[in-house]
Request: fold
Amino acid sequence: MRVALCGNPNVGKTTLFNQLTGLRQRVANFPGVTVERKAGTLAGAPHVEVVDLPGTYSLTPRSIDERIAYEVLVGRLETEPDVVVCVLDAGNLERNLYVVTQVIDLGLPVIVALNMMDVAEENGLAVDASALEKDLGVPVVPITASRGEGIDELKKCILNPPESAQVYRWQLMDAVDAKIPALIKQLTEEAPHVKPMHLRMEVLRALAEEEALDAWRLEAPEFVNCIEALQEEFAKRGIAWRHAEVSGRYAWIGPIAQRASHRVSGPATLSDRIDAVFTHRVAGPLCFLLILVCVFEAVFSWAIPAMDLIEAGVAALAGGVRSALPAGWVTDLLTDGIITGVGNVVVFLPQILLLFFFLGIMEDSGYMARSAFIMDRLMKRVGLSGGSVLPLLSSYACAIPGIMAARTLDSERDRLITIMVAPLMSCSARLPVYTLFIAAFLPTGKLMGVFGYQGLAMFSMYMMGTIMAFVAAAILKRLVFKGPASYFVMELPPYRRPRLRQLFWRMYQRSKVFAIRAGKIILGCSIALWFLASFPRTDTSPEATQIEELAIQERNREYAAAQALAPGRDLTVATDSLSLVDSTLVYALDLTARADARYTAALDSANIIRQSTQIRESAIGHLGRILEPVMQPLGFDWKISAGLVSAFAAREVIVSTLGIIYSVGDAEGGVALRDALKADQYPDGRPVFTPLVALSLLVFFVFALQCMSTLAIARRETNTWRWPMVMWLYMTVLAYLASLLVYQGGLLLGFS
Amino acid sequence: MVPAPLTAFCDGCPLKICSVHGCAEERLRDMGLREGAQVEVIQNSDKLIVRLAGCRIGLRRDVAADIFATPAEL
Reply:
């Protein structure tokens, strides 16, 4: 048996779904977040499957969500549900009932779940469920899904579903109604597979919506002709055929809704008072900006203790493993490859958790919808609407949910543009890269004693991506997707206190996804990279050997010179055990001590040369050096180029790549990557990483599309490889040019 | 009284919608902003917030300008 949950966006369908299935999932206080098909079994009745449909205002397909909901209900995507639970917001019966009348017309057994009774009450509305039940002729169960009230009654009702009776309770305007039977007959002839109970709905949809009509053009051309002829006829007679269905349904719903709900007290709720500030034309955007700055500041500074802890833990683990196992390449692989590689990315989990936490609070509290509303004016300027704000803000966490959230946009063009620019929003995978370089190359001070430079730098990385996303959207709108301006209408849900349990659950789930990615991709990459960096083995380095030989000769010569100063004396004794009277001996001993120091230093530098020879001659070194000429104008040496190659599939991999490149052969192990980067030098002694190089690299990461998953999801959502390819190309070119500009411009201005 | 666009009414004004036009009209009707609906303008600034039954709907100014209404008789 199958139960489908259906209803307007933001009526608590997902919360109810979680209550019914006992499976906690994503809940958001924002219209249209439910886009994926979610299914589970009814708690206590494993034979009943519950499917959560996307939130829709009607079954007339104006967005993908609505088409999907309709197709599930008529059994076109999968076998049709046995019972439909229509979830209603008790606070807004009239509009919510619209889709209910459409579902009833499909001839499916319907149960109405009257949700948010508590919110309605707070808003001064009293809703009479039994009056509604009598008028609608289907069972009505009052519930408060967020507190689990009424769920048992609803379950009972689902297990004993009502009979389905296809009765058209509302009246279509006579002129249109008279034509319906002929159209139904025509459609039956041409498309006999349409179930009898769906015929009337199909006719109404084809009559009212261009898209639905077009769908029949091939299969039932005569039917389409009839409809088009009829539309012309109606137009001549001045009959508002396009609104016939809407007005007919509302004429029936209006009085029902009025009988069932009574306004008890006056308006001006808490939400209105909060909105007076948050959506104010001046204060609103300021609040929004302030909230964003605070979030990024918190993400950056609060995570530091936890990150230090993880870093220390990883180093201790690597050290422990190294001392417990015999020396050899397997141990090297385990410590330098796997533990260091995965550890370098896991270290960023605290920041990602915090980012998810704040985004979650914004979604659940209802602020996300306001941010869309506030930002609409700005979005309009670049040709988008406030509806794109949620997809773009979600892309701060990850472009994948962001691209999927774009489904809720009415305009196909807005949706495509949003998808195309979403990957420019800095996602959590860029965070590790930003953190590493910002922490390594920027001062730790504070601006005006409040905002740390590093937090501000982080914020500006995000701003850079965001501004570029807007610019790209404006350009795309002007050059590629021309057409009329989009419109913006959005429901503003009441403010709610975020429920911490759900919030933490979601943080846990999202981080799990990240950790599994770190586990799979990064573990695999770490191992592969370690091999690439360690093989082919180069044990000989003529340069290093030469330095060593010279050092030995030098030391011997200096020892001989010292011995000549103090003939016959033992120069191995410690200086302080001698009487200071014997000045020649002291002088000779001083000479040998200095010779020893020089010798050790020479050996160290030989060792470093040997290590870097190993990496340079390894497979990844070759790859990096092939790319080096192309990347040199951006200030990148072959190591960074090699890192960029490895980051093609997933950005965060570059951190572990650099970690591996810099720690391979490092005898002490746990030298922090940050310090290793700062210490690295070109053979002529110039540092590899200057602040300018770091900035150039950061800019590259802000703009480049280095994420296979994003390309795959864009392919799925646009149904063609064309857009993902265009996306990858323009972002790569953009990244290269921006880095070029930063580095060369910086050099011209005299920075290094 | 002659219907006027929603943008012409001040905050806190109870209204009755007379007609809905423009590119968003279908979406507006779906959301319940249709002929005969009782609404109240909560905020009228660079954008509009109207209350419809128990919910708030945010409208861009140009969209609101396509919705015509008269003050509702109380």
User: Anything to note?
Assistant: Chain B is about 15% helix and 45% strand. The interface with chain A takes residues 22-24, 26-37, 40, 42-43, 45-47, 49, 51-60, 62-63 of chain B (CB under 8 Å). The beta strands of chain B are 4-5, 13-20, 38-44, 47-52, 55-60, 67-71.
